[in-house]
Write a structure and sequence with these properties.
Elements: H1 20-27, H2 42-47, E1 52-57, H3 65-74, E2 77-80, H4 86-89, H5 99-110, E3 114-122, H6 128-131, H7 135-152, E4 159-164, H8 185-196, E5 201-206, H9 215-230, E6 236-239, E7 242-243, H10 253-261, E8 266-274, H11 279-290, E9 295-300, H12 326-337, E10 359-360, E11 362-364, E12 370-372, E13 385-387, E14 397-399, E15 405-407, E16 411-415, E17 424-428, E18 437-439, E19 445-447, E20 453-456, E21 465-468, E22 478-480
Parallel strand pairs: 1-2, 1-9, 2-3, 3-4, 4-5, 5-6, 6-8, 7-8, 8-9
Antiparallel strand pairs: 10-14, 11-22, 12-13, 14-15, 15-16, 16-17, 18-19, 20-21
Helix pairs in contact: 1-11, 7-8, 11-12
Length: 481
């Protein structure tokens, strides 16, 4: 972590799609009735919806019994605070030291916790020898560093923050020594990382990218969109989510998460802390993540207030004595309200409610009508609709093992785009992600590419089907029968 300059507070310009976060922020309270079966820890509560709730760990604090007992009890994911950064892992060129990183990795895995890697390529916390390099020498050093560190942890970690904080506030590239090696340096870092460990999630991580209307957010979004269009390997975007007095939970935060997810990447809140542990902001950011299927988890940046890099602002869920704060309860309640069973499943754990095979009707919970191909058309691009169930072939859908929903044997349910309002149609099956669907245990059907739900605005015959941000309402729930 490095000291940040807070973003000026901006007006809350848009209500969140599901409306829940805005309501929480307005009232400051998330009201959830006590449930005897509810999970009692953050990690267990998050796991009910297929997510994680993690914390940053400092190896030097693990001998503090209060610190380590809270960390082991409450969280199911760990990020090394500093111990896996370039200056810690390669203090001399070509001479790697993993003792501090391994201490955290071993402590976590011995307790059944997963580990995120942080971070491989960053303008800050570079060892002195790397700071003295430039041009092709620095580029090669970056490549060698990624290969060395990822080689050591290959197959062991859940994700890596491959590149950290590479953008200015206006959305332009930060003029770092790495940027000076060429504008393609981020792409090179991700391609190197994928070759070094094909199984780990590769993430871009940054701060002040929570507000959808902000220049920096748009700069990062445009880079991710470009990478996905050209096949650059990137799996997730980490939003650090450091909320200060001048950078509060924006009203369009869920829009930001959904928009990144619609590019075909996971999103995660990676370094959360909030001035004075605002209950409404903690509940709001948690609910926003829960409302987006591809938001896979939340990590708070430290265990207790006294462990935080912003300790004077009391920004975490436990006070210096290790006591739970009101914000802790608001987060736990929100997580428990999403389970059991994923209300917004991560792509790696869609919890299908229907096994592949057999032609079935797709019946709307709100309307009682079937998803129907108008006039039994077999033309590519025919938009599907609701219609009275009639048992005909144009209402008979088969869920395949590759997550396709087929009709007539050769046509697939197809998303014509990935944004809110994108048409859902039939098209010749082609194996692409816009024709793959997660049929979830809570009744939603989410697009693998977009993370958005099948949605209808009304209940009558002829109502067209579209994609829209998942909100848990009956117009987004269907049964296959």
């Amino acid at each position: 972590m490095a000291t940040r300059s807070p973003v000026p507070r901006r007006s809350l310009r848009a209500a969140l799609t599901a409306g829940v976060v805005a309501a929480v922020a307005a009232t400051g309270v998330l009201l959830v009735a006590p449930d005897a079966s509810a999970a009692s820890t953050l990690g267990a509560a998050a796991a009910q919806s297929g997510r994680y709730f993690g914390t940053a760990i400092a190896g030097g604090r693990l001998n503090d019994s209060t610190y380590s007992s809270i960390a082991a009890r409450e969280f199911n994911m760990v990020t090394a605070e500093n111990e896996m950064k370039p200056d810690a892992t390669e203090p001399q060129r070509g001479q790697f030291n993993f003792s501090a990183g391994d201490q955290i990795y071993n402590w976590a895995t011995q307790r059944g916790l997963k580990v995120r890697g942080h971070t491989l390529a960053w303008h800050s916390q570079q060892p002195g020898w790397m700071q003295s390099l430039s041009g092709s020498s620095l580029r090669q050093a970056m490549i060698d560093h990624i290969n060395g560190v990822m080689g050591h942890y290959k197959g062991k970690l859940t994700a890596w923050d491959v590149v950290n904080e590479a953008f200015n506030e206006d959305g332009s590239r930060r003029q770092s020594n790495l940027q000076a090696t060429g504008n393609d340096w981020i792409e090179v870092a991700f391609r190197t990382a994928r070759a070094a460990d094909p199984s780990v999630r590769l993430c871009y991580n940054d701060y002040n990218i929570e507000n959808w209307s902000y220049g920096k957010t748009q700069g990062v979004y445009n880079m991710i969109r470009d990478f996905k269009s050209r096949g650059v390997p990137i799996d997730c975007v980490g939003l650090q989510t450091h909320f200060t007095g001048g950078s509060s939970l924006p009203g369009n935060f869920q829009t930001t998460l959904s928009s990144f997810a619609a590019l075909g990447v996971d999103v995660a809140l990676t370094e959360v802390d909030v001035t004075n542990a605002s209950t409404s902001q903690y509940a709001g950011l948690t609910q926003a993540c829960l409302n987006v299927p591809r938001c896979i988890g939340i990590t708070v940046w430290g265990v207790r207030d006294s462990d935080s890099w912003r300790s004077s602002e009391s920004p975490l869920l436990f006070d210096g004595g290790g006591n739970k704060k009101a914000a802790y309860t608001s987060v736990l309640n929100a997580l428990n309200a999403a389970g059991p069973g994923p209300s917004s499943p991560a792509p790696s754990d869609p919890s299908p409610s229907v096994t592949p095979g057999g032609a079935k009707r797709i019946v709307g919970a709100q309307s009682g009508r079937c998803i129907d191909v108008p006039n039994a058309s077999q033309n590519n691009g025919t938009r599907v609709q609701l219609y009275d169930c009639n048992g005909q072939a144009n209402q008979a859908w088969t869920l395949t093992s590759s997550k396709q929903l087929t009709v007539y044997g050769s046509k697939c349910l197809d998303a014509a785009g990935s944004g809110n309002g994108a048409a859902v149609q039939i098209y010749s099956c082609n194996g692409q992600a816009n024709q793959q669907w997660n049929v979830n245990s809570n009744g939603t059907i989410t697009g693998v590419q977009s993370g958005r739900c099948l949605d209808v605005w009304g209940t009558g015959n002829g109502q067209q089907v579209q994609l829209y941000d998942c909100n848990g309402q009956a117009n987004q729930r269907f049964s296959l029968s």
